[in-house]
Amino acid sequence: VSRPGPDLEASGPAAAGLVGGGPPAVAAVMGAGSWGTTFAKILADAGCDVRLWARRPELARSLRGDRCNPQYLPGVRLPASVHVTADAPAALAGAGFVVIAVPSQMLRQLAAVGAARRPGGGVRDLLKGVELGTTLRMSEVVCQVAGVTGERVAVVSGPNLAREIAAEQPAATVVSCTDEAVARRLQAATRTPYLRPYTNRDVVGCELGGAVKNVIAIACGMAEGMGFGDNTRASIITRGLAQTARLGVALGADPMTFAGLAGLGDLVATCSSPLSRNRSLGEALGRGASLAEVVHEHGQVAEGVTSCQPILQLAAGHGIGMSIVEHVVLVMHEGVSPREAMTRVMSRDTGAE
Amino acid sequence: VSRPGPDLEASGPAAAGLVGGGPPAVAAVMGAGSWGTTFAKILADAGCDVRLWARRPELARSLRGDRCNPQYLPGVRLPASVHVTADAPAALAGAGFVVIAVPSQMLRQLAAVGAARRPGGGVRDLLKGVELGTTLRMSEVVCQVAGVTGERVAVVSGPNLAREIAAEQPAATVVSCTDEAVARRLQAATRTPYLRPYTNRDVVGCELGGAVKNVIAIACGMAEGMGFGDNTRASIITRGLAQTARLGVALGADPMTFAGLAGLGDLVATCSSPLSRNRSLGEALGRGASLAEVVHEHGQVAEGVTSCQPILQLAAGHGIGMSIVEHVVLVMHEGVSPREAMTRVMSRDTGAE
Q: Do A353 and B174 count as a contact with CB atoms less than 8 A apart?
């Protein structure tokens, strides 16, 4: 199991399942990175009793004692109704629903440890990415490992940089589930004065938007590192979103989802933010650093570095061209320089939009 | 005629007309603000012979002598094939097409002075905004005043901050005309190593995207001035674009235009850029300055200040709610504070996206 580092990205696609009726009074949040911790605070502020699971016992101890995490969320105090533990079964006991907030490539292991042990339990993940080797979306991994059906699984996604929400800055998000009643109950469980959750039934679109945005953020960061400005970034965002929407439609998503909070909203927040790990990594590469140097310095790999290949593979399997993802793959995994990749994009013929 | 100040916005909706066949060799650009001057450079770099008209004789003289405008476009050199003049009839003589780049509220006067005098001539504007008092889009004003039909009029719009394009940073744009042959010829006349023009036939959508984005940029600036971060800005951009698209559909636009370069692309570039006058004005208001103070300091009114009312009126006439435009109108024209306006938006009930 790889060590989950501080996750400063906007949340991504996610999955949720519920047990019993009515708004859930007890929730388990698995993962105490910056987004998991922020989500625990949201649920507590919305009136839930929350169990927050931290993988490392020393982190659980310090969160319990100090009620804050100066490394991940400086200046943010955990509400009294958030109970922190390093004991996964204790966190899950009696939880009306389960939130998973770990890096996407370790979801399968966590789901196997946690949710699958509770045949009646449900799972909700707050992740992004497509699994390496299988090209499954994260909610599909949850369904498969936990043995639950799709309508027990929801996705939460939007322009949701953890530090800003934890600081109670106004934001909106999307709670997506094929079962609208489940989505509405999760909406009630996450509504606070600083967060406006909207419901949506397009799980595929929300999940895909959250996954691909990490790769597009790397491309934006590379352009910025090379000294390009807001026109270039806006062009990358626009063309990247159009390509994501094309893949989404091929997978059965509603194209309008990509124009909404979980598509455009999440993408714009992530590609603009100095808090995004993916954008920062791209920026360092654009300035001339090597991938090895950046990973060595940050001590971890940003989500888009590992997910760009399976996303490109997924697109290729559906006959969809994704030039921006392709160029990130070339830079990440095939030694092409960011400047050479940019020149290749700009030199293509133009046509109708 | 009000004094046109330095225009640092992305370009907005526009209108173009052509005389004769083949790629136009001679073009007139009316208006030597930062965008007009940049457009003259683009046309020259694409191979056209350009006449650039400056309203003020002293500006024409200094542009002719120094080949640069240190106030509007520091560090940028005008190509040798750009001829600067303060004599409008001389600029228009023999021009294959005419580009208008003046603030939207003075378009009618300029069109009357220039294009209407040349029955065979065409007009292309690079403006944003909806005319005060008539709620006409700018291309409609051009058609009306110059007495030409819609297919002679094209719009150029996209993530096109003038200073970045003038510095030859890579960007993309949309050339929109109901007559695709006209659009393709303008595409050829604006294609340079740093600018990729795409054609599009949805003039209404392109024009509306460029007009409303100035108002949304004011709202983003206000949020930033109040200390809110990237989640809030991304939420305003997303909801604002959705509202613009609804109005666009009511006016007969293609909803996909708003997901493209002239919708999303232009909006993201403008709302992110420190170069945007509208965003900067909003930021000053968000920090607590009064509108009178900001206008006094900048010596001019940003486009969105005057266009927010006619846009809201246009939307109301079609039964479309535009809460973000409405709140900008409240702050600009009815003395409501930015903080009060923000609270009103956040306290509304949420529902499906």
A: yes
